[in-house]
Design goal:
- The protein is an all-alpha fold.
- The protein has a domain of 25 residues.
- The longest helix has 68 residues.
- The radius of gyration is 30 Å and the shape is rod-shaped.
């Protein structure tokens, strides 16, 4: 009887440890996913800013070259 009780308690502890491990791993995966989203948003912002900056420089260059042409 004590052996069955001991095995039952041991089984409950194993299940509890597995649940805890699953919960921790899901939190870690969620954190990784969140950081990847943040990195992608940052990269998109950098790319858009780069495009705006290049377009502005090209417009400025064309404006200056047009003025010297006149």
């Amino acid at each position: 009887m004590e052996t069955v009780l001991f095995l039952g308690v041991l089984l409950l502890r194993v299940i509890r440890i597995q649940d805890l491990a699953l919960m921790v791993s899901s939190e870690v995966l969620e954190s990784i996913l969140h950081s990847q989203r943040a990195i992608m948003c940052h990269l998109q912002g950098v790319i858009i800013f780069g495009i705006i900056l290049i377009t502005w420089y090209e417009g400025l260059y064309l404006l200056l070259s047009f003025e010297t042409f006149l």
